Amino acid sequence: MNNLVMAYLGDAVYELYIREYLINKGLCKVKDLQKESINYVSAVSQRRILEELIDDNFLTEEEIEIVNRGRNASSHPSKTTDIVTYKKATGLECLIGNLYTTNKDRCYEILNRIVGA
Predict the structure, then answer these.
(1) CB count, 10 Å around CB of 106?
(2) Which pLDDT tens digits describe the chain residue by residue (117 residues)?
(3) Which of 35, 53, 75, 78 makes a 20 to 30 Å CA pair with 88?
(4) Model-level pTM greater than 0.85?
């Protein structure tokens, strides 16, 4: 599958995982859920998370290659953030989508790491 399709899938998997995590954490009001989810799902947050995963050597070289392919995929410009942040967030989403289709255990290992579980 093409990298932007993987990012599209990864965005959905990531968003659902974060929403489920926050609900299970006990947040019951939509306003609170939305406010807290921004710490995980905004492009700025995804960039920070990706950089932490890389800095902590949590990702394999193969996973970093997937991130780079997603980051370098041709896409439309973001209206809400700078291009570097947007592309890094897309790279993380591409990784999640790719792992969701090829290695769900590793996908959830990364997602658990992201939320600190």
Answers:
(1) 16
(2) 799 999 999 999 999 999 999 999 999 899 999 999 999 999 999 999 999 999 999 999 999 999 999 998 877 777 788 999 999 999 999 999 999 999 999 999 999 999 996
(3) 35
(4) yes
Residues 6+ apart with CB under 8 A from 99: 63, 66, 106, 107, 110
- With beta carbons less than 8 A apart as the criterion, state whether 97 and 3 touch: no
Annotated domain spans of the chain: 3-115
Cβ atoms < 10 Å from Cβ of 79: 6
Residues identified as active-site: 11
Picking from 7, 92, 78, the residue whose alpha carbon sits closest to that of residue 48 is: 92
CA atoms within 13 A on the CB side of 83: 6
3-115 CATH pick, 3.40.50.720, 1.10.287.610, 3.10.20.30, 1.10.1520.10: 1.10.1520.10
